[in-house]
Amino acid sequence: MKRIILLSIIPFIGSLGLLPFVDEVDQYVLGMPFIFFWVVLWTLLISGFLWLIYHLDPRNMEDADK
C-alpha cells in the first residue's frame, strides 16, 4: 500500500511541485518551449503512473482472480 501512495505522490510533485523551477528554463525541446514540453511530458507520465497504480492495487488483483 505504501508503494501505491508513493506512486500517487510522484506525479503531483513532478507536474505541479517542480513547475516553478521549470519555468526558469529558456530552452526549446522538439520545437516547444520547455515549460510546454514539461506539461505534455507529465501528462503522458501521469497516464503511466495511473496504469501502474491500478495494476498494483490489491483490490484490482482480487477482481482479476474471479
Automatic annotation (TrEMBL):
It comes from the Bacteria. Keywords: Membrane, Transmembrane, Transmembrane helix. The chain crosses the membrane at residues 5-22, 34-54. The keyword Transmembrane helix applies. InterPro entries: DUF3311. This is DUF3311 domain-containing protein.
